[in-house]
Each structure stands twice: as structure tokens, then as C-alpha cells.
Amino acid sequence: MLELWWDEAIDEEGSEAEVCGPLESRREIEHGVFLNLGHDYPHPDRFTIVVWGAETTDLSPDAVVGSALCATGLISTYEGVARIELDSASEVRLMLQGDRENPPSQAADDLLYFDWATYPYQPLSPLPGEVWWEDAANLAGTAAMVCGPFADFTSRATDSALISLGNPHDDPSRFILATSGSTNVIDADGEYEMTVCGQGEIEIREGIPGMEIDSSDALFKAADGTLYPLLVD
User: Fold this and answer.
1) For residue range 216-228, what is the model confidence (pLDDT) as tens digits?
2) Which of 130, 121, 153, 110 is nearest to 223 (CA)?
3) CA end-to-end span of the chain, whole Å?
4) Do the Cβ atoms of 25 and 40 come closer than 8 Å?
5) How far is residue 108's CA from residue 7's CA, in Å, rounded to a whole number?
6) Separation of alpha carbons 162 and 111, rounded Å
């Protein structure tokens, strides 16, 4: 069965597929509930999950705007908008961490990194085993996933970069991700404030905690807790 991101569904009309995407709005009408993914109604490029005979109270309490939902069924269109029609709210599921580790690049560039970033910054719920950047110095010498608010980004020679979490590079109270590989960071100018994570061994250098990692281990945490690559080619 096809596994599609919300903005791919329009090209697969008539196919059975699982379609996932960020919930932009929930609209209850007399005969059911309309869940708009990717864009809110009446944007023509949205994807809609229609649950006939349901009410919003039938949905999971976690199915809120900003969460990511999936539905499986026959893709059809109504007035040019792609949709899947369901008979029960139980057929709508929350998208879990790792469901789509490599979403389509267009969806990532246009939506995941921007619309799901929080502005102004709000810490997201921690993942299992996650270490907050302010606590990392106490775990020097151990391997962990350290997360914190993206503060700034500095490119270095030979395809490497320094990413500061918590505070910018001129503040000694920060956590540093020293990455090698791609140096193209999403939203490096800081229009949105993101939660960024790095997976590696925590070290202390010149009194500042950090870790040296490959660029593929620098991640952006979406609003639902899903991790996506922060650095792109």
C-alpha cells in the first residue's frame, strides 16, 4: 500500500493509501468531522480526512491542531481537494515518532521545519532518554540525545559547522553541536525558534559542554515529537 505525505495525495486519486500530515484544523458539521491536513479550510491545496457520523469528541484527545494524523483508504477528490472518507473516528491514527524518518523534501522544506516550529519558543515534551541542554554538563563522558532551543549556527571550513543550543556562541552557558558533513541548516536566520537535538557522546571543552557528531545526527524535533534532519544537502 502507498504511504503518502498529505501534499502527495492529489496525484494519487483513485489509489488506496495511507496519508499522513499535520492537522491544521478540525471542523464539525451535522453529518461528521472534517480534519484538514497541511492547510486550513478553504485553502485549495489542503488534504481532508472526512469522518462521517463522528463528532470531534470521538477523536483521540491528542488529535489537536499541530499533531500529525494518518488515515488509510481510497483517495478521492471533491471540488479539487484530495480526501479520504472514513466511517469511524477510530480509523484516524496519530503519526508516531519514526513513522516517516525521511519525509519528501518538499514537504519538509515547506511545512515540517517551519509550520511545526513554535514561535515564540516553547519547549516540547521530552522524548524517552532525552537530556535537556542545561543538564548535559552533568553527563560528560556518556552517550545521549541532547535537545534544546536552536540559538545560532556558524559554518566552518571543510563541511563542518557549530550549532549552539540554549544561548548563542558568545555566551559560555550553551551546548555545542559540532557537526561534519552538510552545513545547510533549515532556517539558519532564526525566523522560527526550533528544538534541535544531537545524538552522541557528551564532552566538556574549555568549560563548555558539547558533542562532535555527523550532520545526520543533528535533528529537528517537530511539534509531535517526530525527529527530522536539521541539515540538508
Assistant:
1) 888 888 766 778 7
2) 121
3) 29
4) yes
5) 11
6) 25
Kindly report the CATH class assigned to 114-232. mainly beta
Specify the CATH number for 2-95; select among 3.40.50.2000, 3.40.50.300, 3.30.70.260, 2.40.50.140: 2.40.50.140
Structure confidence at residue 149 as a pLDDT band (50, 70, 90): confident
Q: Decide if 47 contacts 6 (C-beta within 8 A).
A: yes
- What pLDDT digit, counting tens, does each position of 105-135 carry? 333 333 333 333 443 455 667 888 899 999 9
Q: Which spans in 46-133 are helix H?
A: 105-107, 113-115
Q: In angstroms, rounded to a whole number, what is the distance separating the alpha carbons of residues 93 and 87?
A: 14
CA 124 → CA 14, 61, 223, distances in Å?
37, 17, 7
pLDDT band (50, 70, 90) for residue 184: low
Q: Tell me the percentage of the chain whose pLDDT exceeds 90.
A: 45
Fold matches, 2-95 and 114-232: yes
Helices (H), 79-174: 105-107, 113-115
CA-nearest of 160, 38, 18, 147 to 86 is 18
Q: Residue holding cell 545524538?
A: 199
Listed by start position, the domains of the chain span: 2-95, 114-232
